[in-house]
Automatic annotation (TrEMBL):
Recorded family membership: Belongs to the enoyl-CoA hydratase/isomerase family.
Organism: Falsiroseomonas tokyonensis
Protein name: Enoyl-CoA hydratase/isomerase family protein
PANTHER family: ENOYL-COA HYDRATASE, MITOCHONDRIAL, ENOYL-COA HYDRATASE-RELATED
Matches recorded under InterPro entries: Enoyl-CoA_hyd/isom_CS, Enoyl-CoA_hydra/iso
Amino acid sequence: MSFSTLRLDVADFVATVTIDRAPVNAQNGAFREEIVRIFDELHDRDDVRAIVLTGAGKTFSAGADLKDRPDRSAPGAFPRHNRLVRAGFDCVLECEKPVIAAVNGAAIGAGCVLALCCDILVVAEESFLSMTEVDVGLAGGVKHVRRHLGESDARLMIYTARRITGPELYRMNAASVCVPREKVVEAAQGIAAEIAQKVPLAVRAAKRSFQVTEDLPLHEGYRYEQSQTVALASTEDTQEALRAFAEKRKPVFKGR
């Protein structure tokens, strides 16, 4: 598959997706269509067990391309536009494989939301997240910001459009790792490589559990997780993991 706004590299069960739309990796219709295609493909690829998402240059993504806004006078323009915007985020959220954001620079508006759709955040010391919708008379991103930041910090970020830097995100427990920009992709790929060594079906079940149980009460959420354990118990990879542990050897997983 060829892409005009993204680059894809796969090695050792880790896919690295790089947003590459100069000058600031802004998101337009072509980008959204391509990110859906690429994540749908990675969702099904047996040679991919974890994904790193980053940006080319010194910007993760400066957000939505304001030159690509729908025509307010055209009936149906906004519903079509909004549906594609949601799809560009949902494909990351719904991908079976864990996605690690390597936030190498500015992640603004839709760029911030895209980073927050990932499972794990690795941020550069030079990076920042910012939701600038109140600066340009728009709205959006509250639910995504709320998932990662405390209530007061989430409201501060949304109401003021203030930049939250990489070190601040790490201090606030919104990011797992904070390193210099030149090391951010390497750090994210290291986490992805570690994930790729685990039982693939178990990792997918863990991601589903995060998705399904997010808004469930504790009792119902844990019951769902127990159902996942039952389903995994009879799989080839779980049996291989148990044998390898008993035999003190490295397991060989097949994804089934």
